Amino acid sequence: MSESTTGRPAAGHAEPELPHIDVAERGAPREGRPQVMDRRLFMQLLVFRCPSAEEPAALTNAVGRALTEHGAAAVVYEDVSDPRGIAVLTWAEDPAFFVQTVRPALNRAELRALELRPDFTMLGRTYSTGYEQELEYWMLRRPPETVLNPAWSWAVWYPLRRSGAFSKLDGREQGSILREHGTIGRAYGAQDLAHDIRLACHGLDARDNEFVIGLVGKELHPLSHIVQTMRKTRQTSEFISQMGPFFVGRAAFRNPGR
């Protein structure tokens, strides 16, 4: 964070030059030209419980109608672990969307009985690794395509945090560790077993998590299986300090928004 100064530097003592801050996203060069863009997608998962006096199916339908009428791109999940639970996934480039569109939609009179479970709230942003062949697609279009795919109804969402030790590794060693993780993810995707969404949540998560992971697929078992397989990687076994809570659900409603 910034620090204020109480006076001007003494004569003859120039202030040190401040570093240039670059917040752009970068992908792999295409036809010899760099891919650079300052756009990204924010995605939020909110988990609710329907009180005993209300019918969960009716509230699920009401949530879908409210989000549609407000023009919100969204997926509503039925919570596998709670017969009265649902979750709402929404996304937009402008994070103001969550307070200007999603907030009034979910505060409609017919939805006020819903009880938020804040321990499961997840908010993150898409980010580049520097290797994306089609940067704009991976940053903006692939995540919605993944969660809206009608063939992939099952989803597992969870946050995680790496230990500080990972940040101290040199770039080459970090790259090797991440490639091991990435190769496993691509193998599951190539066989249509599991498809991932990775979001950064630095400074956005109440518990100081760094990433939000979404796993989506046509069956639940492969989503569990990939988490199990990842446990054996060096990143997970040595450098993940916290994972979860895990939300597991099946899509009951999808809306691409407008």
TL;DR?
The chain has 258 residues and is α+β, with helices and mostly antiparallel strands.
Structural write-up:
It is globular, with a radius of gyration of 21 Å. Strands 3, 4, 5, 6, 7, 8, 9, 10, 11 and 12 form a ten-stranded antiparallel sheet that branches. The chain has a two-stranded antiparallel ribbon with strand order 1-2. It has helices spanning 56-69, 97-106, 135-148, 164-167, 171-190, 221-230, 234-239, and strands at 25-30, 33-37, 42-49, 74-79, 85-92, 115-116, 122-125, 154-162, 195-200, 211-217, 240-243, 247-255. The protein has seven helices and twelve strands. α1 (56-69) packs across α2 and α5 runs antiparallel to α6 (221-230). By secondary structure, it is an alpha+beta fold. The model has no long low-confidence stretch (mean pLDDT 92).
Give the helix/strand layout:
Blueprint: E1 25-30, E2 33-37, E3 42-49, H1 56-69, E4 74-79, E5 85-92, H2 97-106, E6 115-116, E7 122-125, H3 135-148, E8 154-162, H4 164-167, H5 171-190, E9 195-200, E10 211-217, H6 221-230, H7 234-239, E11 240-243, E12 247-255
Antiparallel strand pairs: 1-2, 3-5, 3-6, 3-7, 4-5, 4-12, 8-10, 8-11, 8-12, 9-10
